[in-house]
Design goal:
It contains 6 helices and 24 strands. The protein is of the alpha+beta class. The protein is elongated. It holds the Pfam family Noelin-1.
Length: 454
């Protein structure tokens, strides 16, 4: 047998840009279930975790917390130093005044008769000038208490660091973390080169946020490759014009750091997609597709999708003006819709992203009103049989062979009403809007990789 002449990799793709979303620290890179098939070919299973897996390590979190404490202590010490320096200057400036008062008190003590009304008033004025020293001394007391607290915190930090050092032994944890991050980067780079595969499973749902109304859509850029980390949210399914743009996934989770785009034309449905910095959507009460460029805040292209139904003529089972569903995968930009000549069956068209011209079209034969939602992965359209609880991925149409099959891929519809479900080929996850919740699913793809020996 030629070792690795052909490898079958079952790749659990889970590359979500938000570290708090992963439930289990055991999801590390693994290669297991090594075996041979009937032809003697090697079979392996690879499970790929999220990037920055080490950030989920309890020791890593503990070290970060310690670093934050050290930073806080440093800042407190700087404040104390500045305040002490300022107060010390004040004390030095009043030193001569204190000596004068001390001298006059000694004179009055030794010769009480020398303390006439004028001398008494002069002494009283000098003492009055010393009164501002009292709050300074009180501040010194408070600072002394703070120094005691800081000393106790430093002692506790030292004990924790010693415990971590004993647990880690001779290894440099930071060096190990960097090596693992480098390995993850190389593995994810390899993962992106693996090519396409067949969907075989969907993970449990990962709720990112609860926001907006019952219907809506949210997404990141689907272009490969891309370093764009922005997140967009579009609440509602008809006549909406407001698009919220968040800087990162973390900002989206917290509902902060966003800007607003006001579209020149309202949208219909929830089948929008962001591809290479532009939003593609269906114009309200029409079968016109619009390409809106976020950076220039302008419409670049408008084109009618010839014959496509609109305004709830051929929606998904949940309605919501979902006649036209735009999506993207590893092969580019797609439109899923139906027409009267197609008798309400789902039609797939591959679009040219610049002009929105239809490049090729397929008739799947599957009735669109029987579909809950659909999404494309590697040129294959996957259709769910319902938008409600108990839904599963029921039908797959392969554009590369113009063939179809019925599938049985379950997934957990946690909030019981999905109004948007789209695949992101860059992150290799499913984005869904489920009854006012923004939810992600990891996907499992079965891939055949051939080496040069084949």
């Amino acid at each position: 047998m030629h070792l690795f002449s052909t490898m079958f990799l079952l790749l659990m793709l889970s590359t979500i840009p938000c570290e708090a979303l992963y439930p289990s620290p055991e999801e590390g890179w693994q290669i297991y279930s090594s075996a041979q098939d009937a032809d003697g070919k090697c079979i392996c299973t690879v499970v790929a975790p999220a990037q920055n897996m080490c950030n989920r390590d309890p020791r890593s979190r503990q070290l970060r917390q310690l670093m934050e404490k050290v930073q806080n202590i440093t800042q407190s010490m700087e404040v104390l130093d500045l305040r002490t320096y300022r107060d010390l200057q004040y004390v030095r400036d009043t030193e001569n005044l204190m000596k004068t008062v001390d001298g006059k008190l000694k004179t009055a003590s030794e010769n009480p008769r020398s303390l006439n009304p004028k001398s008494f008033q002069d002494l009283k004025d000098k003492v009055t000038q010393l009164l501002p020293l009292l709050p300074v001394l009180e501040q010194y007391k408070a600072d002394a208490r703070m120094i005691l607290r800081l000393r106790e915190e430093v002692r506790n930090l030292s004990l924790v660091l010693m415990a971590i050092q004993e647990e880690m032994g001779a290894y440099d944890y930071e060096e190990l973390r960097q090596r693992v991050l480098l390995l993850e980067t190389r593995l994810h780079s390899c993962m992106q080169k693996l090519g396409c595969g067949k969907l075989t499973g969907v993970s449990n749902p990962i709720t990112v946020r609860a926001s907006g109304s019952r219907f809506g859509s949210w997404m990141t850029d689907t272009m490969i490759p891309s370093s764009d980390n922005r997140v967009w949210s579009m609440d509602g399914y008809f006549k909406g014009r407001r698009v919220l743009e968040y800087r990162t996934m973390n900002d989206f989770m917290k509902g902060q750091n966003f800007v607003q785009h006001l579209l020149p034309h309202p949208w219909a449905g929830t089948g929008h997609v962001v591809y290479n910095g532009s939003l593609y959507y269906n114009k309200y009460q029409s079968n016109i597709l619009i390409k809106y460029h976020f950076r220039s805040r302008s419409v670049l292209v408008q084109r009618s999708l010839s014959g496509a139904g609109y305004n709830n003529t051929f929606p998904y089972s949940w309605g919501g003006s979902s006649d036209i569903d735009l999506m993207a995968d590893e092969n580019g930009l797609w439109a899923v819709y139906t027409t009267i000549p197609n008798a309400g069956n789902i039609v797939i068209s591959r679009l040219e992203p610049q002009s929105l011209e239809v490049l090729q079209t397929w008739d799947t034969g599957f009735p669109k009103r029987s579909a809950g939602e659909s999404f494309m992965i590697c040129g294959t359209l996957y259709v769910t049989n319902s938008h409600l609880a108990g839904a599963k991925i029921y039908f797959a149409y392969y554009t590369n062979t113009s063939t179809y099959e019925y599938t049985d891929i379950p997934f957990h519809n946690q909030y019981s009403h999905i109004s948007m479900m789209d695949y992101n080929p860059r992150e290799r996850v499913l984005y869904t809007w489920n009854n006012g919740h923004q939810v992600l699913y990891n996907v499992t793809l079965f891939q055949v990789i051939k080496t040069a020996e084949d």
